[in-house]
Write a structure and sequence with these properties.
The chain is of the alpha+beta class and about 280 residues long. The structure holds flavin-adenine dinucleotide (FAD). The site of flavin-adenine dinucleotide (FAD) has 30 residues, from strand 2, helix 2, helix 6 and strand 10.
Amino acid sequence: MVKQVIPKSLNEAVDYLYDGSYRVIAGGTDLMVQKRNTAETPPQFGENLLFAFNLDELKHVNKNERCVRIGSMTSMESILHQNDVPSLLKEVIQDIGSPAIRNLATLAGNIGNASPAGDSLVPLYLLDAQIVLISKNQFRHLPIEKLILGPRKTGINNDEIIKEITIPIQDFTKTQWTKVGGRQADAISKVSFLGAVKIENEMIVDFRIAFGAVYKTVIRSRDIEKDYKNISVSELKERRIEISKRYEDLILPIDDQRSNKEYRKKVALNLLNDFIINL
Ligand SMILES: Cc1cc2nc3c(=O)[nH]c(=O)nc-3n(C[C@H](O)[C@H](O)[C@H](O)COP(=O)(O)OP(=O)(O)OC[C@H]3O[C@@H](n4cnc5c(N)ncnc54)[C@H](O)[C@@H]3O)c2cc1C
């Protein structure tokens, strides 16, 4: 018999999670769809459920001089109304689902779902987000790229809950977010692209690129990025074919009902090229 609990505090939640038998439900916008029944009966869950919606301790957004901390139960819609959240993250969240979905959906759920097409993962990779996990006995901070292991696979232990997401404060001269979906709104990404640069005196001092939905996880390569820092904007533009070739090796999309791999790869590389040429 499946148990369902609605803890009122984080302490109570981690006590329940301790034996590893509970699944956390945040907004339920992924889980309710994954477990749905076709026979118009309620979704079937084969595991105990911990509903996190009463955990007010996880609904904060705070900023200090180093970072912004977003509580894991802050809905995407309320993140959009927070001045302290980086505008780049808000721009991406604005493209997720519809207002009804965003009022329930959380960043923690997007992370926990670990879909290659999870839109918020793209800015979280690009912005060097750290995920803070808590269990009864320990705290862990993990960079997002260490936490996400592959499609629907994360390094979150059964007794852990995501407490918050921390994002270092940083600023860019130019950013470009593009989500390519089957329609303008409420679409799952076929391809997504995020580029960010910081330019000082016509020199590239920071260069970051992230792609979504074209590999098992978001693609971000610090090795490639570092080779294009401390060069002039015009040199970066001249070297864009070489940059494109280096990313081409990393972009390994799949065919599915939304798109095919040739389209995904071509569009991803075109978006990269457009970003660089328009700097
Ligand atoms: C109509 C529709 C449109 C959508 N559009 C988009 C879209 O445009 N882009 C996009 O990326 N996604 C989209 N989604 C998918 C979904 O809304 C997002 O992935 C959302 O972020 C999931 O958040 P949630 O809080 O509802 O997660 P839930 O369904 O509650 O949970 C998802 C997973 O995360 C785990 N989890 C949740 N919170 C925690 C926590 N605090 N600690 C540990 N594990 C946790 C759960 O156990 C589960 O495995 C859409 C879904 C629907 C139904």
